[in-house]
């Protein structure tokens, strides 16, 4: 009886091993894709420009408050705090929206890339250790990034 169970376990392991080998899988480095994607860079620069304008407005209000008498400065301080809080909230909402758009574009491209190349799995390797080991040649990040940027550049030929 022990030999039959051992044989059955060995057959199952070999079956699983051969099934896994027949599937095409690779991995990407999502943080690298996000940082290198032209669509992300452009949107992040636009957001940085907005942040600078908002910070300039805050700096102007700060300068204005310092030149006011104490009784007027208290009211202005309250306005300043409310404005700063509104700006910080607006920045968070805007950045979250932009990041979601970028991730949606990247994920859509990766899905299409996987279908076109015949992949069964494309895994994401992050600093948190989702992939502990991958054989050399399984990292397709550069190929995906090049294709993603080519697609973006074709769809946005007039970008600065």
Shape: elongated
Distance between the termini: 73 Å
Kindly report the spatial arrangement of strands forming the biggest sheet: 1-2
Number of alpha- plus pi-helical segments: 5
Approximately how much beta-strand content do the residues carry? 5-15%
Number of structural units classed as domains: 1
Mean pLDDT: 81
Task: Tell me the number of strands.
Answer: 2
Q: In percent, how helical is the residue content? A: over 70%
Structural class: mainly alpha
- Uncertain segments are 1-19
Radius of gyration: 26 Å
Main sheet overview: 2 strands, parallel
What are the secondary-structure elements, in order, as H or E?
A: HEHHHEH
Can you describe what's shown?
The radius of gyration is 26 Å and the shape is elongated. The protein is mainly α. It has one domain. Mean pLDDT is 81; it is low at 1-19. The chain contains five helices and two strands, in the order H-E-H-H-H-E-H. It has a two-stranded parallel ribbon. Helix 2 packs parallel to helix 5 (141-155) and helix 3 packs antiparallel against helix 4 (70-117).
Topology readout:
Blueprint: H1 2-21, E1 25-28, H2 30-36, H3 38-66, H4 70-117, E2 121-124, H5 141-155
Parallel strand pairs: 1-2
Helix pairs in contact: 2-5, 3-4
């Amino acid at each position: 009886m022990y030999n039959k169970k051992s044989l059955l376990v060995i057959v199952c392991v070999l079956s699983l091993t051969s099934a896994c080998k027949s599937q095409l899988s690779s991995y990407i480095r999502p943080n690298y894709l996000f940082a290198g994607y032209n669509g992300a860079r452009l949107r992040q620069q636009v957001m940085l420009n907005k942040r600078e304008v908002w910070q300039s407005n805050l700096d102007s209000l700060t300068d204005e408050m310092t030149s006011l008498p104490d009784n007027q400065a208290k009211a202005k301080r309250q306005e300043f705090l409310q404005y700063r809080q509104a700006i910080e909230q607006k920045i968070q909402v805007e950045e979250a929206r932009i990041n979601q758009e970028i991730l949606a574009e990247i994920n859509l491209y990766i899905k299409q890339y996987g279908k076109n190349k015949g992949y069964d799995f494309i895994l994401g390797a992050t600093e948190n250790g989702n992939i502990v080991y991958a054989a050399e040649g399984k990292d397709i990040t550069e190929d995906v990034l090049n294709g993603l940027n080519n697609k973006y550049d074709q769809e946005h030929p007039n970008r600065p």
